[in-house]
# Entry
Amino acid sequence: MSLLTVGSVAFDALETPFGKTDKIIGGAATYITLAASYFTKKNNLVAVVGGDFPKEMVDLLVEHGVNTEGLKTIQDGKTFFWSGKYHEDMNTRDTLETQLNVMADFDPVIPESYQSTEYLMLGNTVPATQKTVIERLAKRPKLIMLDTMNLWMNIALDDLKDVLKLVDVLTINDEEARQLSGDYSLRKAAATIMAMGPKTLIIKKGEHGALLFQGERIFFAPALPLEVVFDPTGAGDCFAGGFIGYLAKTDDISFENMKRAIIYGSAMASFCVEKFGTERMVNLTQEEIDTRVQEFVKLSSFEIV
Ligand code: AMP
# Structure
C-alpha cells in the first residue's frame, strides 16, 4: 500500500556527549521516509527545501525508492535548520535553535499521483500545514498518523487541537503527553488525549520503550538496551516510519498488528541511534532488521510455569 509522508527535510547541527556536528542532513520526513523505505516501495514525500539543499541527498532518497515529485525546492530560500544539544543521559535534549526558513510559509502541494494514498504520515511540522495536507487529499486515507512536539503546544496549541480531531494515531513523547493533557499519569494523559481525536496514541519513552493505547487497551514495547547510543536524533521519526511502513506493507490496522508495527518501529529507532544523523538508516539490510526484531521478541518473552 502507498504511504505519503509530509514533514521537515532539514539541516541539523547536533551536540551529544560523543561529539558535535556542523550542518548535517536531518529532518523528520527524511528519517521517516528512510525508515519506511525498508517496508514499502510506494513511499511518497511532500516537503520543501531551499536552494542550499544538496542534490546528492535527494538522489539518495530516490535510491531508497522515495518518490520526490512532491519535494519542492525554493531556489532563493534557505532549508529549515534545527540545532540541539543532548544531556549526559541522552534521553533529554534542548533545542538550541530553530530556523523555519522555507518551512515558514510552506504550501504543501499534493501531486496528482499521490492522491490515492492509503497511509498518511504527518511528520512533525506546523500544525496548520498538517491540516492543509488532509484537506487537500480528495479521499481520506485509511490511516492518518501525526507526530508533533512541545514547540507547537507552546505556540500553536489551537491549530494543533484542530488537526488532532482529524487523525487516527498520534505519537508524542511522555513529556509532551503530560504537557498536552495536563495529567501526570500517562494512563490519564492517554485518555485525555484520545478524547481530543486520535483513537490510538503512542507515547514514546526514549530508552524506556513506548506505550500503545487504544480505548481501554494498552501494549508496551521495550527499547533494546544497546551497547552504543551515539545520537538519538531522528529516533522518534524512524520509529514512526517503521511503524506506519509496516502497517502499509501488511495493510492491516488492527490493534494486534499495531503491536507488531510498534516492535518494527522500535527496531528502526534502535538502528538510528547507533550513528550520527541518517548514517545508519541509509544502508540497512533486511537480514539486520529481521535479526533485530527477533532480539526484541526474545527481550520480553517469558513463560509462567
Ligand atoms: P526526533 O529526534 O525524532 O524528534 O526528530 C529530530 C528531527 O526533527 C531533526 O532532524 C530536526 O530537523 C527535526 N525537527 C526539530 N524541530 C522541528 C520542528 N519544529 N519542525 C519540524 N521538524 C523539526
